[in-house]
Amino acid sequence: MTCGGCLWQHDEMLVLFAHSGTGSTVATVHRGDGVVLQLPGYDRKHRVPHDLAHFATERTLGLSDGVFGSIAAGGVFSNMKLISGKPRHDAAQRSRLLLEAHKRALTTAELLAGVVHQVVEDGDADRVTALARDAWISFDGGDFPWSDEQVTRAAAELGELAVEWEAHGAVRAVWPDDLVAPMPVPHGVKRGRRGRT
Fold first, then answer.
1. How many CB atoms lie within 10 A of CB 109?
2. What are the residues whose beta carbons fall under 8 Å from the beta carbon of 143, sequence distance 6 or more?
3. What's the farthest any 2 CA atoms get from each other in the chain?
4. Which of left, alpha, beta for 169 (phi over 0: left; psi -120 to 50: alpha)?
5. How far apart are CA 69 and CA 75, in angstroms?
6. Rounded to 5 degrees, what angle do the CA atoms 100, 133, 158 make?
7. Measuring CA to CA, which residue among 138, 136, 133 is closest to residue 148?
8. Contacts for 69 with CB less than 8 Å, ≥ 6 apart
9. Order of all β-strands in the sheet with 25-30
10. CA–CA separation, 151 and 130 (whole Å)
11. pLDDT digits over 170-194, tens only?
12. Position 197 confidence tier, pLDDT thresholds 50, 70, 90
């Protein structure tokens, strides 16, 4: 369902990347549940914001349990700040469970976003598939789970967002509602109906 003045659906997440007052960048995240959070960037030295690289890479490669998929599911990283909205009563506990359960996926997202960011920052996108595969072998050692076309598309997507960033100093983007990290079941909690005593 959409609202008249809104540019995104309520169950989708809107992210606004902009310059912060410190000269770095900040991503303001409007979650589908009405909670608004800020994720600060620490990248004054970069032409392209690192969190924008995460967004483009994770969205293009379908990483539901990376940084932005985790935030969409209710994950709140330690450097994030609540701006408005009312989180659930158990939001802190859910966030801890979520981020712990997806620790490896978050490392994977950092690895791939780092490669995509590097090639776009350097203007050398032709090397993205080779660098991504090398990084994956060092990290995992197994077969690379994405195609060269997907990785190339991630670099192209970031390149397009970088052009918008440089032209306007801001990027407004929607995170798809089908890329949300799954919520783990807490230890000791059984699924299904409780038996009668």
1. 22
2. none
3. 67
4. left
5. 9
6. 75
7. 133
8. 58, 63, 175, 179, 180, 181
9. 81-84, 36-40, 25-30, 13-19, 170-175
10. 10
11. 999 999 999 999 998 766 555 555 4
12. very low
Rounded to the nearest 10 degrees, the angle between the axes of helix 148-168 and helix 128-139 is 110
Q: Please report, for residues 18, 25, 110, 169, the alpha-carbon distance to residue 165 in angstroms, rounded to integers and kept in the order given.
A: 8, 11, 21, 5
Using CA atoms, how far apart are residues 154 and 55, in angstroms rounded to an integer?
10
Does the pTM surpass 0.70? The reply is: yes
Model pLDDT for residues 23-48, shown as the tens digit of each residue: 789 999 999 999 999 999 877 778 89
E strand map for 47-160: 81-84
Q: What sections of 19-80 are H helices per DSSP? A: 50-61, 67-73
Are the C-beta atoms of 162 and 43 separated by less than 8 Å?
no
What whole-number distance in Å separates Cα of residue 25 and Cα of residue 8? Answer: 22
